[in-house]
């Protein structure tokens, strides 16, 4: 199975291409939907990498794919500007999951 990148910027796309990952750069909502539909339709793609910006700006589209398709796996990655998560993201996630303050 292959990985496929859907990025909002050319820098992340270029870096992933150097690592051998094919992909596309999109900016608009409809472009994201089309790119996801194309990637889902390709049975060789097992993992779709999305820059975090899409998860923040279009959560309905991303969540729909995650909930309604077993494959491919959707993984949100930070882009060249870093992660959009707060610095204590993992600690807060654990606190929410098990109800224990670390």
Distance between the termini: 38 Å
Strand content: 15-25%
The radius of gyration computed from the alpha-carbon positions, rounded to a whole number of angstroms, is 15 Å
Query: How many strands appear in the DSSP assignment?
Result: 4
List segments where confidence is low: pLDDT < 50 over at least 5 consecutive residues.
Answer: none
Spatial strand arrangement across the major sheet? 2-1-3-4
Helix fraction bin = 40-55%
Characterize the main sheet: 4 strands, parallel
Q: Which class best fits the helix and strand makeup?
A: alpha/beta
SSE topology string: EHEHEHHEH
What sort of overall outline do the alpha carbons produce when their principal axes are compared?
globular
Can you give the mean pLDDT?
A: 82
Total helical segments: 5
Structural account:
The protein is α/β, with parallel strands linked by helices and 102 residues long. The model has no long low-confidence stretch (mean pLDDT 82). 47% of the residues lie in helices and 22% in strands. The protein has a four-stranded parallel sheet with strand order 2-1-3-4, with helices on both faces. It has five helices and four strands; from the N terminus they run E-H-E-H-E-H-H-E-H.
């Amino acid at each position: 199975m292959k990985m496929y990148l859907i990025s909002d910027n050319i820098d992340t796309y270029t870096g992933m291409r150097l690592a051998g990952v094919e992909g596309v750069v999109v900016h608009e909502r409809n472009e994201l939907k089309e790119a996801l539909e194309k990637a889902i339709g390709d049975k060789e793609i097992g993992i779709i990498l999305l820059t975090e910006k899409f998860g923040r700006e279009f959560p309905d589209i991303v969540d729909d794919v995650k909930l309604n398709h077993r494959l491919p796996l959707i993984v949100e990655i930070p882009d060249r500007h870093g992660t959009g998560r707060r610095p204590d993201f993992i600690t807060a996630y654990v606190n929410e999951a098990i109800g224990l303050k670390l």
